[in-house]
Design goal:
The protein has five domains: 3-129 and 262-288, MutS, DNA mismatch repair protein, Chain A, domain 3; 150-255, Orthogonal Bundle (MutS, DNA mismatch repair protein, Chain A, domain 3); 295-512, P-loop containing nucleotide triphosphate hydrolases (Rossmann fold), CATH 3.40.50; 629-703, Roll (SH3 type barrels), CATH 2.30.30.30; 711-790, Ribosomal Protein S8, Chain: A, domain 1 (2-Layer Sandwich). It has 23 helices and 25 strands. A six-stranded mixed beta sheet has the order 12-13-14-10-15-16, sandwiched between helices. The protein has a five-stranded antiparallel beta sheet with strand order 20-19-18-17-21, with no helix packed on it. It has a four-stranded antiparallel beta sheet with strand order 3-4-6-5. A hairpin with a 2-residue loop joins strand 3 and strand 4. Helix 8 packs antiparallel against helix 11 (231-261) and helix 15 runs parallel beside helix 16 (451-459). Residues 715-790 form the Smr domain. Homodimer. Binds to stalled ribosomes, contacting rRNA. Residues 523-607 form a coiled coil.
Length: 790
């Protein structure tokens, strides 16, 4: 790959971005050597690595890549029989732990329905040496600290050292605290010199303190003397420390030996960990730039969908789509300066280089790039001061080098082709270069200011125009690339909006070739038509999305209604099954009673049989009706003027009943279905078609009439328990309400007051009770409760 092209396309900045995501210096070295591959299969393999890493991170989260150290020197020392320092052993332990955790991480990801064959292959080759990790962590506490638990011998030696230290300190403390000795001391302290305990003595008192001099102060006024009484003790301490050091070296040698035995496996680990660190860095970068895996081809076709320049802030970059190599192999981009032409060129070049390096590209799905043998770019001012070359000469030198080396399997990117010289000659030279590249089958993208190249691309097969959009209203570029439309010169329009006089604008038009004016007008027309087409397209997309949204909502509502319908049908069937079961049970009881009655004789038997027959008929009438659908529902809306005695259908139960109480403020009321009373909401009711004036002719009307004639205005509950009284009283209040009585008396007696208290509590929550009070003199006093009905 051409190194100069990598430099002008700023490939190294992509490498730096990747470098920020690796954790080890070994992987950084690998990243620094990264270069685009020209082998199709290798590129595909590299992209597959990145895909697996990105997908695994998405599934499992943060990758446990801990410290990865360069262990080559450590392993060499272990192989020759030397021993490693504590800090080196900790580096080995950390690296082994990283290998073990990373292996488990990848293996776990593969078990969770993942598909990571490349990563799994690397992970399966990682060696785990938990026993070495544990031995190091057991023996080493820090970079310079060995644990007492490293060996039994070391623990015993250190215990003896501690005891000896205490003995020496106690001996010296007795010496320095002695009144006879204190006058000879510079300070009453114990210190250490050359690894031995000493005391500070004034120089002039040297003869008064027998012992060995180990040091003196910088002024010479203080001598550090080891008293003769502790020389032997210090010797013992020194010997113990030598034993400690020997034991430490033995422990380090032992652990290093374990490492040496597995040095080949650890070397393999280091290579694999470096590679995995590099692969996961690619995955992290892909997620950071919201990139995608581009589709690959080897036929020179490029299609970038909403590509974003990777080195521009993703919050401000304008995405652009660009394609090349199918219907045309040369793309000529025109437009104003600072309009985004150079950025577009670099974006295309960088995305090709990134893809061939195994990196994701910041674009949308559907992006496709070819694997080229080389990418050649001439971008920017490469003027060489040392060679005293002009801008034109510098560019031409680069282009000549490109023309001498390029093949049909290469991509060529040229910025401001032919610039820096006479416009006529520059345009002619540019057309000649583009023609030669086209005839050689080279994929080429070039930018230019020359209008001649716009017309040239229009008439030349295999070439296509493109332009960067410019908003004349705001006098600023939009950075949008328009393929198929040549760039329009906006000099006169911009000058006019900036305030240049109209007569100067017109005078300028006179100097422009008539054909050029017509060409510019055609471009303007194309541009206007394009904007209208885009507006219509956006509106069509908006309407299509709105229709799709409404369709989805409708389908969801249909599904919800179907589920609700099925649920209600299921509930109705369950209720019907329960009613039939209850009916069968009641019929069995009646038959049983009839059999008992059959044993009796005379008129009494006949009376009881008639009662049973009547009871059975009433039960069958009450149970039969809810099992059949009544179609004469008055309306689909809940009834508005509902009265006691109206016939209604309960929708959720699919049963018909009679209203026995008016709706309250929340719309709740009581409906009688046969022998059952049910509390329902008015929204769940539908009025059944029925002539309310003829209600007297119906069964309900007959019942109401009978109740009106037979129900008394008082009920006697004396002698009943509260539970017995509550059932009787509840039925009595229903009958009194249907009979339209306004006031009734409940006789409960005085007694202990328990029955009266229970009845009062019951009346507070009854739906037919408006108010109640205790009786007064002449009404029965405390033994009676007067109830006002609604």
């Amino acid at each position: 790959m051409n190194e100069r092209s990598l430099r002008v396309l700023e490939y190294e900045k992509i490498v730096d971005m990747l470098k920020n995501h690796v954790t080890s210096n070994l992987a950084k070295n690998l990243v620094e050597k990264l270069r685009p591959s020209t082998d199709f299969n290798e590129v595909r393999e590299l992209l597959s690595e990145t895909s697996e890493a990105a997908n695994l991170i998405i599934q499992r989260g943060s990758v446990p890549i801990g410290p990865i150290y360069d262990l080559r020197r450590h392993l060499k020392m272990a192989e020759i029989g030397s021993y490693l320092t504590p800090s080196q052993l900790l580096e080995v332990s950390d690296t082994l732990r990283t290998a073990r955790m990373l292996k488990n991480f990848i293996k776990s990801g593969n078990e969770n329905n993942g598909n990571f064959p490349i990563l799994q292959s690397y992970a399966s080759s990682l060696n785990t040496y938990k026993h070495i990790e544990d031995r190091i962590n057991e023996a080493i506490l820090g970079e310079d600290e060995i644990s007492d638990n490293a060996s039994v011998t070391l623990k015993n030696i250190r215990r003896q050292i501690a005891n000896k230290n205490n003995a020496i300190k106690n001996k010296l403390n007795l010496i320095i605290s002695s009144p006879s000795m204190q006058k000879y001391l510079q300070e009453s302290i114990v210190t250490i010199r050359q690894g031995r305990y000493v005391i500070p003595v004034k120089a002039e008192n040297r003869v008064n303190v027998p012992g060995l001099v180990h040091d003196q102060s910088s002024s010479g006024a203080t001598l550090f003397i080891e008293p003769l009484s502790i020389v032997e003790m210090n010797n013992d301490l020194k010997e113990l420390k030598l034993k400690e050091q020997a034991e430490i070296e033995r422990i380090l040698t032992e652990i290093t030996g374990l490492i040496g035995e597995k040095s080949e496996g650890i070397k393999v680990n280091q290579e694999i960990l470096t590679k995995l660190d590099f692969i996961f860095a690619k995955g992290k970068l892909a997620l950071e730039m919201k990139g995608i895996e581009p589709k690959l081809n080897n036929r020179g076709y490029i299609k970038i969908k909403n590509g974003r320049h990777p080195l521009i802030d993703k919050n401000v970059v304008v995405p652009n789509s660009i394609w090349l190599g199918d219907n045309f192999t040369s793309l000529i981009i025109t437009g104003p300066n600072t309009g985004g032409k150079t950025v577009t060129l670099k974006m295309v070049g960088l995305m090709v280089l990134m893809a061939q390096s195994g990196l994701y590209v910041p674009a949308d799905y559907g992006t496709e790039v070819s694997v080229f043998d080389g990418v050649y770019a001439d971008i920017g001012d490469e003027q060489s001061i040392e060679q005293s070359l002009s801008t034109f000469s510098s560019h031409m030198k680069n282009i000549i080098e490109i023309m001498n080396n390029v093949t049909e399997k290469d991509l060529v990117i040229l910025d401001e082709l032919g610039a820096g010289t006479d416009p006529t000659e520059g345009a002619a030279l540019a057309m000649a270069i583009l023609t030669d590249l086209y005839e050689r089958g080279v994929r080429t993208i070039a930018t230019t200011h020359y209008s001649e190249l716009k017309q040239f691309a229009l008439i030349k097969d295999g070439m296509e125009n493109a332009s960067v959009e410019f908003d004349v209203e705001t006098l600023s570029p939009t950075y949008k690339l328009l393929i198929g439309i040549p760039g329009k010169s906006n000099a006169l329009e911009i000058s006019k909006r900036l305030g240049l006089s109209d007569y100067i604008i017109e005078k300028a038009r006179e100097f422009i070739n008539k054909e050029d004016i017509e060409f510019e007008e055609i471009i303007s027309s194309i541009e206007e038509n394009r904007k209208l087409a885009e507006k219509d397209r956006d509106e069509a997309i908006r309407l299509r999305l709105e229709v799709q949204r409404l369709k989805n909502e409708y389908e969801k509502k249909i599904q919800k209604l179907n589920k609700q319908r099925e649920r209600e049908i299921r509930q109705a069937k369950e209720e019907a099954r329960k009613i039939l079961k209850d009916a069968k049970k009641e019929a069995d009881e009646i038959i049983k009673e009839l059999r008992n009655i059959s044993k009796e004789v005379g008129r009494e038997r006949n009376r009881k049989i008639e009662e049973m027959r009547k009871k059975m008929r009433i039960s069958i009438d009450a149970l039969e009706e809810p099992l059949f659908r009544i179609e004469n529902i008055d309306t689909d809306e809940p009834p508005k003027d509902l009265r006691v005695g109206d016939t209604v259908r309960i929708l959720t139960l699919n049963q018909t009943g009679t209203v026995i109480s008016k709706p309250n403020s929340d719309g709740d009321l009581t409906v009688q279905i046969g022998i059952m009373k049910i509390n329902v909401n008015i929204s769940n009711l539908r009025l059944v078609k029925e002539d309310r004036d003829s209600i007297e002719k119906t069964n309900v009307g007959t019942i109401l009439k009978t109740k009106t004639q037979t129900v008394k205005s008082e009920i006697d509950l004396r002698g009943q328990t509260f539970e017995e009284a509550r059932i009787i009283l509840d039925k009595y209040l229903d009958d009194a309400y249907l009979a339209k009585l306004q006031r009734v008396s409940i006789i409960h007696g005085k007694g202990t007051g328990a029955l009266r208290k229970g009845i009062h509590q019951f009346l507070k929550t009854h739906s037919h009770v408006k108010s109640f009070r205790q009786g007064v003199y002449g009404e029965g006093g405390d033994g009676v409760t007067i109830v006002e009905l609604k």
